[in-house]
Each structure stands twice: as structure tokens, then as C-alpha cells.
Design a protein that fits this description.
Elements: E1 11-15, H1 19-25, H2 30-50, E2 55-62, H3 70-93, E3 96-101, H4 109-122, E4 128-136, H5 138-151, H6 159-163, E5 176-179, E6 198-200, H7 211-223
Parallel strand pairs: 1-2, 1-5, 2-4, 3-4, 5-6
The site of farnesyl diphosphate has 19 residues, from helix 1, helix 2, strand 2 and helix 3.
């Protein structure tokens, strides 16, 4: 099937899975898998620019990932920190807005300030918005939204009230959620936001992600018939 530039997802969300297995197959430590996964992050951002995707969300660290060894967690934090520092100019040159979702409170202070600075520095850019999901959990997002609604003394809560209190309030719902590595579950990702998302579970491990795999996502999306509960 040919690629139709007109029917593109506005928001592509990716659960980047398979870094650990990629490393294990090569007899490498898990953090080498995350390092290779980081290179795939750089590639997917370039594909989004090339194929004009407006929003890309990357699930980089979940509320459940604290269960991993400290060494692995610190390694992931280092990758995020260094990536943002190294690519600061590139975000500006390419008109990329960098945003994040999730609760940054438990993160190291310097990492929080790197994230806050890049968010501020790129807030006016609009070619592509890259959303990093960090200490993000769909349930936690909903719980924090409900608490802020209560604290504001809001009555008569509607769907819009909830949407406007989630971390994603400025971001459209994902059109397609992709999880690499062949696992077929959502693992507490954007639970409220994915009510009408399409799903796609390619077998490829995240560090192997390439342009062919990216185009397969777009083609898969183009074959889907989205009806939102209606009839066509
Ligand atoms: C899942 O693979 C991957 C992670 C939990 C971390 C991924 C994080 C990065 C690649 C860094 C991202 C940084 C930015 C700036 C977006 P896994 O370890 O669960 O793999 P496995 O299931 O094969 O063990």
C-alpha cells in the first residue's frame, strides 16, 4: 500500500520496549540497551520531522520503573539529561518544542531544572512537539487531576474538566499508540487519553527501530477505519 501524506496521525505515542532484551541477546548490560534505545529516539524524531508528524510522545520512565535497580534508573536519567543538553541547539534549529508529562517531584533536582529549562526555551516552537513521559502513569495522571479538581472546589465535573486537568491538557489525544518488542499491553500509559486511539504492536525491539518500521506505523494507521462509535 502506498503511503498517503494526507492521512497522517497528528499524535504518535510510543511505548519504547525491548531495550533489555536487545542487550541480553548481545550479552550486554541492560543500560547498553537503553543507550541504543536513545539512538532510536534521535532517529524517530528525525522521521517525525521528515514525515510531518506534529506530536510525538515517548514513554521514557513509568511510575512503576522505580522497581528497577538504582544503577539502571540512574543510567536512564543520565541518558535523558545528556540528550537534552546535547540537542538543545538542534531543538531550536528544527523548531521543536520539548514538553513532558508525569510527576517530576521525585527526580534529581538538576534533571528537573534541565527539563524545565528546555520546556521554557522551546515553548513557542511548533514544527514538532516531543513529549517525554517521565515518572508517568495513567492512573497517577488521573489521581493528580482529580485532586486538583477537588482543590479548586469544582462542582459538576464533565469530561472536559478532567481533560483540562490531566498532564496532557495542551496535547491532542494520541491517534495511534505503538508498543515495540511484541508485547501487547498498555502498562499504565495514557489511560484516559487513549479511549479512541488505534493500537499497533510491532515485534521489533526499540533499539532496532528504523525508517522502515516507522513507515509501517504510518501505513498501518492509514488502513484503519476510525469510527468513534459511529457508523460510516
Ligand atoms: C523499556 O525497555 C525501556 C525503558 C523502560 C526506558 C527507555 C528509555 C530510554 C530509551 C531513554 C529515553 C530518553 C528520552 C530523552 C526519550 P525494557 O528495559 O523494559 O526492555 P525489556 O522489556 O526488553 O527488558
Amino acid at each position: 500500500m502506498a503511503f498517503k501524506p494526507k492521512k497522517l496521525p497528528t499524535h504518535l505515542a510510543i511505548i519504547m520496549d525491548g531495550n533489555g532484551r536487545w542487550a541480553k541477546r548481545r550479552g550486554l548490560p541492560r543500560n547498553q540497551g537503553h543507550k541504543a534505545g536513545m539512538a532510536a529516539v534521535e532517529r524517530v524524531i528525525n522521521y517525525c520531522l521528515k514525515y510531518k508528524i506534529k506530536y510525538l510522545t515517548l514513554f521514557a520512565f513509568s511510575t512503576e520503573n522505580w522497581k528497577r535497580d538504582k544503577e539502571e534508573i540512574d543510567g536512564i536519567f543520565d541518558l535523558v539529561r545528556n540528550y537534552i543538553k546535547d540537542y538543545r541547539d538542534s531543538f531550536v534549529e528544527n523548531n521543536i518544542k520539548v514538553d513532558y508529562i508525569g510527576n517530576l517531584k521525585p527526580f534529581p533536582e538538576d534533571l528537573v531544572s534541565v527539563l524545565e529549562n528546555i520546556k521554557k526555551k522551546t515553548e513557542k516552537f511548533d514544527e514538532l512537539t516531543v513529549v517525554l513521559a517521565l515518572n508517568y502513569g495513567g492512573r497517577d495522571d488521573i489521581v493528580r487531576a482529580v485532586n486538583s479538581i477537588i482543590n479548586e472546589g469544582c462542582k459538576n465535573i464533565t469530561n472536559e474538566t478532567i481533560i483540562n486537568h490531566l498532564d496532557t491538557k495542551n496535547i491532542p489525544e494520541p491517534d495511534i499508540v505503538v508498543r515495540t518488542s511484541g508485547e501487547q499491553r498498555v502498562s499504565n500509559f495514557m489511560l484516559y487519553q487513549m479511549a479512541y486511539s488505534e493500537f499497533y504492536f510491532p515485534k521489533i525491539f526499540w533499539p532496532d527501530f528504523n525508517e522502515k518500521a516507522f513507515l509501517k506505523i504510518l501505513k498501518t494507521y492509514q488502513k484503519r477505519d476510525r469510527r468513534y462509535g459511529g457508523i460510516k
